[in-house]
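Predict structure. Chain length: 164.
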Amino acid sequence: MIRLSVFYPTTEGATFDHDYYRNHHVPLAVKTWGLDGAEIDKGVNGPNVAAVHFKFESPVTGGMVTPVLIVAGLTVADTDTDGGVTSLVLGICGAVIFPLTIPQVLAVIFAPISMRQSTRAGQPRSGLAIAGLITGAVGIFAALWFWIYFANNCVVVGDEFVCT
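Prediction complete.
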């Protein structure tokens, strides 16, 4: 049995909806990841406002990608996780396939949406969304530079592209 613990630190001026977390968020995570269960601790005047302890048999259980991201320290506020992670993943994908600009543009679109959701929920802006915005923007400029260079310096000679 493996136990994965996620702690939510107490933040001055922020609120934590324990009912939503207990009744919706954790059951969704358990169902989505195919886990064996979870225990929730409610913090009382301590450094953490809450903690959840997920239980599973093996590290290759169902959807272990998300728990691995949690272990790597990539979890942010509940209201921001989807957009911030999505933006960062798209920005990284765009860096790998940079001549194609679709992932970079989507990263730049998702980042401000995620940051706006965080602000509305009273949470700090997500570093993941900011990183996604930066990687997406850099990817767009790299792709534009590539296409401008390619258009100005490459010609078709027979069956080949020749770049000068």
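Summary: The CA atoms of residues 18 and 42 lie 8 Å apart.
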